Amino acid sequence: QSALTQPPSVSGSPGQSVTISCSGTSSDVGSYNRVSWYQQAPGTAPKLMIYDVNNRPSGVPDRFSGSKSANTASLTISGLQAEDEGDYYCSSYTSSSTLVFGGGTKLTVL
Amino acid sequence: QVQLQESGPGLVKPSETLSLTCTVSGGFIRYYYWSWIRQPPGKGLEWIGYIYYSGSTNYNPSLKSRVTISVDTSKNQFSLKLTSVTAADTAVYYCARLGCSSASCSAFDIWGQGTMVTVSS
């Protein structure tokens, strides 16, 4: 299985919105509403931010939202804050009942 | 509150077997899927495989020939074995729980802190 495709980096100023894309295929992202997003600060374990495309776990600010169109999922962070800086990974369930991650996107808050 | 803790050797010799255990505390291992994920230094996350508490498993096709994940419900633990390791297997290894919504069990909602494993002679 191939990794999902994410842009290596995105950036934005405080208060702005940024969107990170996650491109897959009809065997993963396109076929299931089972896309999740993770935030990873340096030296720490990833943290679940979005599950099942557009659901936020308790405690995750509503500035974080997810969506999906065809084979591409997206994570949007609105009202960008300095604490949002870090690496973001998407993940999807696949037709082989496996899971696959994206390559990761580094978010820089300018 | 459920917590996960990885344990095992931090150094493994090439061609040998990497063995790690994840201990689940604050909750039961039953009725969930449990997973191993790794992250080579400076690189992204790679899913290794998962196991259901009943023992059924599924693995990353690229690692399937070398990976075994097992569970011990009496000890609230699950384990990873990776055979014939090389330097490319050097990574931080995380254990994680696959949380379940009403729709699916496909998001890693609880993670261990991770343990660094270096493959070197």
Walk me through this protein's architecture.
The complex is a heterodimer of chains A (110) and B (121). In chain A, a hairpin with a 5-residue loop joins β7 (86-93) and β8 (99-101). In chain A, 0% of the residues lie in helices and 44% in strands. Chain A has strands spanning 9-12, 18-23, 35-40, 47-50, 64-69, 72-77, 86-93, 99-101, 105-109. Chain A contains no helices and nine strands. In chain A, the strands form two sheets. In chain A, strands 1, 3, 4, 7, 8 and 9 form a six-stranded mixed β-sheet that branches. In chain A, strands 2-6-5 form a three-stranded antiparallel β-sheet, with no helix packed on it. The mean pLDDT of chain A is 96. With 110 residues, chain A is mostly beta strands. In chain B, 0% of the residues lie in helices and 52% in strands. Chain B is built from no helices and eleven strands. In chain B, the strands form two sheets. In chain B, strands 2, 4, 5, 6, 9, 10 and 11 form a seven-stranded mixed β-sheet that branches. In chain B, strands 1-3-8-7 form a four-stranded antiparallel β-sheet, with no helix packed on it. In chain B, a hairpin with a 4-residue loop joins β5 and β6. The mean pLDDT of chain B is 96. Chains A and B meet through β7 and β8 of A and β5 and β10 of B.
Order of helices and strands of chain A: EEEEEEEEE
Residue windows where pLDDT falls under 50 for at least 5 positions of chain A: none
Overall pLDDT score of chain B = 96
| SSE string of chain B, helices as H and strands as E | EEEEEEEEEEE
Radius of gyration of chain A (Å): 13 Å
Specify the structural class of chain B.
Answer: mainly beta
Structural class estimated from helices and strands of chain A: mainly beta
Radius of gyration of chain B: 14 Å
Q: Detail the poorly predicted runs of chain B.
A: none
Distance between the termini of chain A: 35 Å
> Beta-sheet strand percentage of chain A?
35-45%
Number of strands of chain B: 11
